[in-house]
């Protein structure tokens, strides 16, 4: 099942589009501002992004540019304006396709399927790995190795690790990790993050009490150097 990410701040629009795409057999996630969307792309192992231009915190053009520094994931850009300038800029900075709102959902689905077929070409090069010290992270295989030895992680542990490793030095609060990894609809509390980070340290660190990979900034959150 292909995984899609919608990055758009119009909640009712996202809800309706998500339902339509799920009825077509896609797994669909959503982000409601540019920064959240970018972080989800870094960790989410998605197959395609549907990206609105007008977003809070970080506009769609900036998100697209940043994604292209680390991924060739297909991107369809959306705008409320039928402006050719937007379309040209979007394509020039790395978007694969462009649709002006309002659009026919069937057309969007057809374009999604066409891009997914193109992206399945085995010769398309993608960023596939992260190295941090003795750690080697293979993103497509969702595998982690330390000094050549494979470390078995759960899906959530892996996603936390990839997020932190992709953004060295950036501190993530427990609430932010909860939103990014578990989703805004998750009804658990921040203790869920604490437990997962503790287990992740137990698997990664030589001495979990003196971590070398995942650090705590007291009163703020977690980060990797």
UniProtKB/TrEMBL annotation:
4-aspartylphosphate: residues bearing it: 52
* Sequence ranges assigned to domain Response regulatory in this UniProt record: 3-116
- What keywords is this UniProt entry annotated with? DNA-binding, Phosphoprotein, Transcription, Transcription regulation, Two-component regulatory system
Give the Gene Ontology MF terms in alphabetical order.
phosphorelay response regulator activity; transcription cis-regulatory region binding
Q: Where is the OmpR/PhoB-type domain?
A: 127-225
The record, for InterPro entries, names: CheY-like_superfamily, OmpR/PhoB-type_DNA-bd, Sig_transdc_resp-reg_C-effctor, Sig_transdc_resp-reg_receiver, WalR-like, WH-like_DNA-bd_sf
| Single GO BP term | regulation of DNA-templated transcription
Q: Which domain of life is it from?
A: Bacteria
Q: Which residues bind DNA?
A: 127-225
Which is a Gene Ontology cellular component entry for this protein? cytosol
Cleavable signal peptide:
none
Functionally, this protein is described as follows: May play the central regulatory role in sporulation. It may be an element of the effector pathway responsible for the activation of sporulation genes in response to nutritional stress. Spo0A may act in concert with spo0H (a sigma factor) to control the expression of some genes that are critical to the sporulation process.
Q: Return the protein name.
A: Stage 0 sporulation protein A homolog
């Amino acid at each position: 099942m292909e995984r899609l990410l919608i990055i758009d701040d119009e909640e009712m629009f996202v809800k309706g589009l998500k339902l339509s795409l799920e009825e077509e057999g896609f797994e669909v996630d959503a982000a409601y501002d540019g920064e959240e969307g970018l972080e989800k792309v870094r960790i989410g192992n998605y197959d395609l992004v549907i990206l609105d231009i007008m977003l809070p915190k970080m506009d769609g053009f900036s998100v697209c540019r940043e994604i292209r520094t680390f991924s060739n994931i297909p991107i369809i850009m959306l705008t409320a304006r039928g402006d050719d300038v937007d379309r040209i800029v979007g394509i020039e900075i790395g978007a694969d396709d462009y649709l002006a709102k309002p659009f026919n959902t069937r057309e969007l689905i057809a374009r999604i399927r066409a891009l997914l077929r193109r992206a399945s070409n085995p010769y398309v090069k993608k960023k596939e790995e992260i190295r941090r010290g003795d750690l080697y992270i293979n993103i497509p295989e969702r595998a982690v190795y330390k000094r050549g030895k494979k470390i078995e992680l759960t899906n959530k542990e892996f996603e936390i690790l990839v997020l932190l490793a992709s953004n060295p030095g950036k501190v993530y609060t427990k609430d932010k990790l909860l939103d990014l990894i578990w989703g805004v609809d998750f009804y658990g509390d921040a203790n869920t993050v604490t437990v997962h980070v503790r287990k992740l340290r137990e698997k990664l660190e030589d001495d979990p009490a003196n971590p070398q990979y995942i650090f705590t900034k007291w009163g703020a959150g977690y980060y990797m150097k």
